[in-house]
Design goal:
This is Acetone carboxylase. By secondary structure, the protein is of the alpha+beta class. It has one helix at about 45-50, and strands spanning about 20, 35-40, 55-60.
Length: about 70
Amino acid sequence: MAMPEICSSKGCGNAATWAVLWNNPKIHTPDRRKTWLACDEHKATLSDFLDRRGFLRDVEPFTGSDA
């Protein structure tokens, strides 16, 4: 049985329910998307952190990886 993916917030061990998609336009091509996973509690703080830097591209529900 696979372990659930957890939130990317430092020290959080909650299961991820959101995918926070971002890129740094200084180093990534416009179509590149990096992903941070977030629980309900940290969705806003992770999104806000990236948005303040101009990196946030999208936030979508996370249902698990295909791997």
